Structures are given as C-alpha cells and as structure tokens.
Description:
The complex is a heterodimer of chains A (about 425) and B (about 100).
Chain A: H1 3-6, E1 17-18, H2 20-31, E2 42-43, H3 45-51, H4 54-58, H5 66-80, H6 90-101, E3 115-119, E4 124-128, H7 138-142, H8 149-156, H9 161-171, E5 174-177, E6 189-192, E7 203-206, H10 212-222, E8 226-231, H11 244-251, E9 255-258, H12 264-276, E10 279-282, H13 286-290, H14 296-302, E11 307-312, H15 324-330, H16 333-341, H17 352-369, E12 374-379, H18 380-388, H19 395-408
Helix pairs in contact in A: 2-5, 3-5, 3-19, 5-17, 10-17, 15-18, 16-19, 17-18
Chain B: E1 10-12, E2 19-24, E3 32-34, E4 37-38, E5 62-64, E6 71-76, E7 82-84, E8 87-88, E9 90-91
Antiparallel strand pairs in B: 1-2, 2-6, 3-4, 3-7, 5-6, 5-9, 7-8
Amino acid sequence: MKQANSCAVLSETDLPKTHHAANYANHLLSELGCLEQVSALSDHPAIAWRRSGLLRTTKLMLPVPLTAHVDGVLMALRALCPKADLPDSGALLMGERARLRKTIRNGRQCAGGYGRLMDTANGRIAVNLVREDDWGLIPAWLEDAAEDWDGITKIVAKKDTAFLVNRAAEIGLAVAEDKLPDRPKSWVSIKRFEKAPRKTNPLIVDLSGLWAGPLASSLLAMCGAKVVKVESPTRPDGMRLGHKGFYALLNAGKDCVALNFRDANDLAKLKALLDRADIVIEASRPRALRQLGIIAEEFVSRKPGQIWARLTAYGQSANRIGFGDDIGISAGLASVMEAAHGEPCFVGDAIADPVNGVHLAIAIQAMLSQGGGAVIDMSMRDVLRHAIGDVANDLSIIAKTWKAIADEDKAALYPLRKPQGEVKALGADNTVWQC
Amino acid sequence: MGVVFKPGVKLSSTVCKTQIMVLRVPAVELDISCGGAPMQIGDPAELGDMSGENSGTMVGKRYTDADETMEFLCTRGGDGTLAIAGYVIDIKAAKKLPSSD
C-alpha cells in the first residue's frame, strides 16, 4: 500500500506535520519540467481538513490527503514565485466559500444546495441542477415528467445509470456516476509550441467564469500577471450575483471587459485582445470557441511564447459539462466516503473547482517560467482524481485515526483572506482595452 | 399534418444531416420541418431535396420559437433550417451561468 509511508506523522510537536504536501509539490514540479524542489513540512491532511472548515461543511473526515496535496500545489507555486504574496494554505482556498456562505452538506444534498445524490436501478448518480433552465430539461432527460426532487428521485430509481449519464451529457445537464476511477497517470496534457523570452508581468485574458478559472488567474495575478476578465454582456459571470465577498476574493483587482461574442464587431475585438494576451484561460465547451472561429493552436502558432489553458469537466473530446460538486462525485469522493463511513455523500463545497483552480495556476506558471508556448488541457475530473492520491484499502481505520487527530486540534480555523483591490463592474474597462 | 411529440424524442431531417432532440414542447400537434420537409423519427434511407431558404443548423445549439414555448437541441448539424408550421425557429441564447455551483 503506497499509503503507508505517506501517512506517517513526522513531527514531535503536538500538531502533526507531514511530507504529503511537499511530496505532491515535487511530483508536480518535476512533471512540469521545473527544476525547483521543496522540502517543508505542512499540516497533516486531517488538521488541514478541519482548519479549512471542510470538516464542518462535510460533517465527516475525508480519509485521503486531498487538502495536503492542494497545500502542495501552493508550495510548488511559491517555489516558482518566491516573492509572490500567495495564500499560506491551499486547503484554505477549498473551504473559504462554504465558510463565507455558511453552507453545510445536508444528507444527500451538497453544501451548495443544488446537487443531490440518488440511487439508480443499478448504481448511484449525482444530479446537479445549478441553472434555473435545467428544470425545463428534466422531461427530455427522463422521458417522464417530474416537478421536484422527489419526483426525479422516484424516476431515476428505475433507470439505468449509463442511460441517465449519457443522456444528461447529450442535453447538457450535470449528472455524474458515483464511482472511483483509477488514478490517471497524468493530470495535465501539454502541447508545446515555440517559446519566447520570459515575461515577468504577462497579460492574462481570462474567458472563464465561476470558480476554478478565476481562482487560477487571481493566483497568477499574485505572481505578477495583469488580468483582463472577459464576459458576455448577456451572460456575465454568474458569481457576480452570488456572495459578494467571495466574488471579490476571486476577482478584485482584475480589469473587466464585456464583449458580445455573437456580434461581428465584438468578436473581432475579442480576437484582437486574444492576440495581445500572453496567457489565455478558458473553461467553455470545446465547440463553443471553435464555432466562433477561435482555435487555440492557431493563436499560439502565431505568437511565440503564448500560453492557452483550457479547462473542461471531462476532457476536450468528451463534450460533457460538469460543475464542482458533480465532478467531485465522478472523481470518486462519494465512494471514498461510503467506504470510510458507510455513507456516500458530497465532499466539501464544489470541491473540483478550487482543486482545479490551483492546478491550473501551477501548470500555467510552470510553462511561463520556461518561456511559454503551450496549449494546456486539463480535465477537472482527472485533476481531482489525481489530487485525491492513491486510495488505501483501510479507509474506515484512517477516517477514525484522522478524526481523532482533528478532534485534538483546538486551534482556530485558517484566517479567511481579505479581497485585495477594486471589484470592477461588467465591462468597466472596455475603453482601456479598446473593446 | 401534425404530430404530438414527447420530450426526449429525436427527429431527423429528410433532406439533410440535421438531427434534433425535443426538449420542451406544448402537448399539441406540431408540424416540425427542416429544409422545407417534415422531420421524422429515425434517419431516412436517402435524403430528398431541400426547398426554401436554408442557413443550416449547428450541433449543440438550442432552437426555440419566438415565444419560447418550445425548445429543441440540435444533436447533429446540417444544411437545412428548422421551422414549425412554416415559421423559422432560431438559436436560443445560452443558459445563464449559475450564481454558484
């Protein structure tokens, strides 16, 4: 069992520290072709789980070192950008939204409130109806009418998992099978293009919304990048309407440009802006930009050193949407909890989002430090599954041991961050960026 | 000549490659056409001739009537234009992003 040595508590102090984070950081750094290595000890995964607030959010101990691995990603980022004022802990980033919004998991309902776990005829799925419009698609998904969650649960109980997952993928609903996949060999796919001299203050054009992409660009801003957030005036980042303080944590200090992708003039301006970018971040469906004639490889071929980072739920070829909570289920977290506690449940709060946000940041920063010239593809499910690590057989024993460690810990939770900089309105900086 | 369709049903064009899935429809008889010819359940053995003005369909896009009383998902793009009782139906605006997920 690979778990054995990585669980070792190595500090003699009353607060256990481990090498989990540093090991993970070094693995990422060498995989990304970076020579930097780290060696610091960091909080035991169980301590980080508690102090991030996620023990309270989830109500149960997570018996895999995910928090420590996310700490490791921050360590790796700090190794590449020693002068950057980065957050002290990666685990903090995973828990901050639930702490700010004071949401917790409720039985089979996720902390965010929009997702449910339910049994099918031959398995279990997560259904995450985050958009109001999603409810209108239920009859087409189930070939049956359901007015509410009870109705959906009853119909789903009679249907086949593969049918439900495939059909949901086809019509664009976030539905995922509860299953622990094998750990992928690699969490990122990078196609290299011509490099250019390294820029210390690169321009990021961020087309993404919600949590993962904006978190990545906010971390890269701390490493010296200038970020322009691009939104559609008819479809702005939905998080603008969510918790203000949380939106500010991810987006304060960014310039904001609004462009209507369906308008030919605006589309030309968008392409011009993308040409100026040193780094482009996007998290749309692969065909969305393709249908607008925006092909990452063409931009990167034209401009040596440019980096495109593309985030999808299940990979570029899958054509399938997902959100943080349902992707968490597809990465096996409910299966892990069932094995540990006898109760399958959502873990954390939209957990795939912050985990992917930090990985996106380290992948981009690593390419940047090597002169760029890359198209980076990340599948949120694969990244999360990779960050979960090797899963031990004795999860229930680990869960008990780690819970005891967390119960001993009487320290305060990690201090919440304060937003830095001004939160700009939609399109506030169109003139500045000639848009 | 109309038919009452159930959500989830897939319809194929008889004059181009277009295939759509019925997402949301009123429970009334509908005359759904593509490229000027009625659509059918299952692909045709061979394609007929298109008529009228056609600008094509795009895979992955949702199509809706002016009043948004019905909605279709294009599951395979083609050259024909979708119409209900002769009235062209157009691409629906993208779903609003959620305020949390």
